[in-house]
Structures are given as structure tokens and as C-alpha cells.
């Protein structure tokens, strides 16, 4: 027992020599995950849809790490194949995958358009399955790997005007368990990270709605919306050796939102 205790060190949380794919890692929460991994020592591969990659490139390189990019649409199966192939061609391996890229299209349930439903489901759930499966099988060949699927507060509840996002984020929990079950014997761990309500540029208009802002804040037992750095340590934990015996689980980073009526 003493040998096992003595073996543990803070190096369990380091990511030196690891390669991490973070989809949509050039903006928003994805940028926070990518930056956290770079600070912990990993090199990055970032599939992205929006063009601007300058900020995350500067952040990663300032940490002395490498970063590569490939622009495209994860709803395109050929692009998903290219992501996996190009990352391996670039770095020789894939150690971490964060299925972060997603989208929302809001609308009344009675009028919600079929094409918006399909587009949201394709990116928010189906792309996570196809990329997770392809990367997971590569990790299985390596004998190790970490898959982190980004869930949501809406993985456990529902809100109006975003039906496909809610459905997809519930599905992410099932997908995580499937990947954990299918790949665990190959030393590949799959877990989900569920951010709560974070104050970002994307939701500035929502937070400006005093009624909505107070409704959410009153349910958060810590009494505040989250910050990007509130997520970063949790992401590093799930990507690191420190979580080697955590598999098929969902880590809520929500300030207590899910624990409050």
C-alpha cells in the first residue's frame, strides 16, 4: 500500500508528451480547454469551423507547445476522417479528445423547423459519436486515451425554445457510457464534463435579461455564474493520469445548479 501512496504526485495532473484534439478549440469554452491543456504540457490539434485561430495559437505557443489546425464542418464525415488522419500524420498519436464543438438554434416548439433540428443534432450528438468512435479505436490501438464529451446543465433538465440542444445533451451522457463500456478494456476512459451557466460573450444578451439572469443565479448555490477558469482544472483532471479510474461518469461544473430545486 505504501508503494501505491508514494507513487502519487502532482505529476499525475501533468500532460507532457500528450496530444489533445479539442473541437472548436479556437473560441469560447473550447479555447479554455485547449489553453488548460497547453498549460499542463500538451500539444494541441484544433478542428475548427470559424476562421479566427490567432488568439488560441498565441496562447498555446506562449506555453511553448505546438498547435495545428484544420478548418471544416464536423457534420461532414469526410472531414471527420481527415481530422483523425491529419492529427496522426502531424503528431503520431492522439491521447485526448474533447468533443466540444456545438451549436444552438432557438425557436418555439410549435414552430421549430425540421432543418434546424437536424443541423443541431448532427453537430451536437452525431458528430461526437463518429469522431469519438474513430478516435477511440485509434486510442485502443495505442493502449491508452481520454475522451471528454461536453455535456451541459441541459443534460439533466430541460428549458423551452431549444429542443434539439436539450435532446442532444441528454444523448451525450448515453454516448459517454457507451464509449466507456466499449473502450474501457483497452485502457481508454470516456467521461463527460457538464458546464453549468458560465458568463461569456456568447450569452451576454441572455444575462442582460434581468428576470432570466436572476432565475438562474438564484438556483446556483454558489450565487454566481461560472468563469472560464472554473472549467479548466476539471478538464485537465479528466484528461490526465489522475482520472485513470474514472470511466463513464459526468462531472458537473455548475456551482451547485443541478443539486438545487
Automatic annotation (TrEMBL):
The keyword S-adenosyl-L-methionine does not apply. InterPro entries: NAD(P)-bd_dom_sf (IPR036291), Sc_DH/Rdtase_CS (IPR020904), SDR_fam (IPR002347). Keywords: Oxidoreductase. One of its GO terms (molecular function) is oxidoreductase activity, acting on the CH-OH group of donors, NAD or NADP as acceptor. It comes from the Bacteria. Belongs to the short-chain dehydrogenases/reductases (SDR) family. This is SDR family oxidoreductase. The lineage of its organism: Bacteria, Bacillati, Actinomycetota, Actinomycetes, Actinomycetales.
Amino acid at each position: 500500500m505504501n508503494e501505491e501512496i508514494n507513487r502519487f504526485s502532482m505529476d499525475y495532473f501533468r500532460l507532457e508528451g500528450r496530444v489533445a484534439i479539442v473541437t472548436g478549440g479556437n473560441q469560447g469554452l473550447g479555447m479554455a480547454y485547449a489553453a488548460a491543456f497547453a498549460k499542463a504540457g500538451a500539444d494541441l490539434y484544433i478542428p475548427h469551423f470559424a476562421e479566427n485561430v490567432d488568439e488560441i495559437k498565441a496562447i498555446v505557443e506562449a506555453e511553448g507547445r505546438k498547435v495545428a489546425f484544420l478548418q471544416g464542418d464536423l457534420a461532414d464525415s469526410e472531414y471527420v476522417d481527415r481530422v483523425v488522419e491529419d492529427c496522426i500524420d502531424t503528431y503520431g498519436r492522439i491521447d485526448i479528445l474533447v468533443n466540444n464543438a456545438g451549436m444552438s438554434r432557438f425557436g418555439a416548439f410549435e414552430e421549430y423547423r425540421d432543418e434546424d433540428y437536424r443541423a443541431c443534432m448532427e453537430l451536437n450528438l452525431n458528430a461526437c459519436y463518429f469522431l469519438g468512435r474513430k478516435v477511440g479505436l485509434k486510442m485502443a490501438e495505442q493502449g491508452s486515451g481520454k475522451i471528454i464529451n461536453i455535456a451541459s446543465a441541459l443534460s439533466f433538465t430541460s428549458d423551452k425554445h431549444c429542443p434539439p440542444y436539450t435532446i442532444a445533451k441528454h444523448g451525450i451522457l448515453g454516448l459517454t457510457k457507451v464509449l466507456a463500456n466499449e473502450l474501457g478494456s483497452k485502457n481508454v476512459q470516456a467521461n463527460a464534463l457538464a458546464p453549468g451557466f458560465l458568463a461569456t460573450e456568447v450569452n451576454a444578451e441572455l444575462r442582460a435579461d434581468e428576470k432570466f439572469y436572476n432565475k438562474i443565479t438564484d438556483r446556483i448555490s454558489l450565487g454566481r455564474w461560472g468563469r472560464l477558469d472554473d472549467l479548466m482544472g476539471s478538464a485537465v483532471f479528466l484528461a490526465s493520469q489522475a482520472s485513470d479510474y474514472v470511466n463513464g461518469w459526468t462531472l458537473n461544473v455548475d456551482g451547485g445548479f443541478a443539486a438545487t430545486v
